[in-house]
Amino acid sequence: MTRREWMLMLGGALAKPYAVCAQQPATPVVGFLSTGAPDIAIRYLKAWRKGLADAGFVEGPNLSVEYRWAEGKYDRAPALAADLVGRKVDVINTTSELAALAAKASTSTIPIVFSGLYDPVSLGLVESLPRPRGNLTGVAFSFDLLVEKRLQLLHELIPAATGIGLLTNPGSRTTAAQKELVTAAARALGLNVTMLTAGKPEELEAAFAAGSLQRIGCFIGNDAFFNVNSQQIVALAAHYSIPTIHFLRHIAEEGGLISYSPSFEEMAYQAGAYVGRILKGAKPADLPVQQPTRFELVINLKTAAPLGLTIPPSILARADEVIE
């Protein structure tokens, strides 16, 4: 071998690692779009990141995440979704109906994984649960079954009440559906429904004051606005002595009377795992919409005592957590 041939071979060998490095794919970027706020999503994010990690993606080493929070202000969702699309993220993960709808309106090509919503078919997000089609898939739950269960629990807590209050956000797309489901379920239990509405923090007190005059328990609707303002809602429920049932576990833990919901941590994990699979090459259309398998009942006895309520043993026996 001549010196020239040796140098050419050595030069090729040294150049190879650099060539390989140059061909390495760029770190994927996931857009995380929520109509809620980061301080109430800590558990969700932990579970979501675990789903990603189990799929082989860890934020920092081999994954970047662009977070966008509407903090209960729904009119911000379309702009936040458009911003993520403009940044050409590889996948968008959404955590509510409005976030998913905003993302869908912004792109028909970037994969979208939704979680924490119900009935994605009627919302027009997917064609069916087994075959989503298009660029969306994710995790959804059956809201009508939850409504029946939550109303039954509230009725067991205050059996003398002849009616319940339903607190909804008039600015939410899902309000009409929630009203219809709750009214039908209440009618089956012989209960009347009083509509209480609030779409801004300053409107919440008037809603609770109206509920107090009716002397009824309150069914808090599923809405990011109520989640963001949960501390104010808990304080008002205590001030006006209104028993409440909530949709998120953390609200009962911070002072709400009772909560019953699917495990949002489980749904977050499932969503993270789906994002990971898509980053590896799976198509949303080939991933059936998943449903949660775990549901959580949390009871706060500290809140029940000032309300003069005795929690029936039948409810305590079913609780996943009792706060004393």
Structural overview:
This protein has 2 domains: about 30-140 and about 265-295, Response regulator (Rossmann fold), CATH 3.40.50.2300; about 145-260 and about 295-324, 3-Layer(aba) Sandwich (Rossmann fold), CATH 3.40.50.2300. It is elongated, with a radius of gyration of 24 Å. The strands form 2 sheets. The chain has a 7-stranded mixed β-sheet, sandwiched between helices. A 5-stranded parallel β-sheet has the order 2-1-3-4-5, with helices on both faces. About 45% of the residues lie in helices and about 20% in strands. β6 (about 165-170), α6 (about 175-190) and β7 (about 190-195) form a beta-alpha-beta unit. It has helices at about 5-25, 40-55, 75-85, 95-105, 145-155, 175-190, 205-215, 225-230, 230-240, 250-255, 265-280, 300-305, 315, and strands at about 30-35, 65-70, 90-95, 110-120, 135-140, 165-170, 190-195, 215-220, 245, 260, 295-300, 320-324. It is α/β, with parallel strands linked by helices.
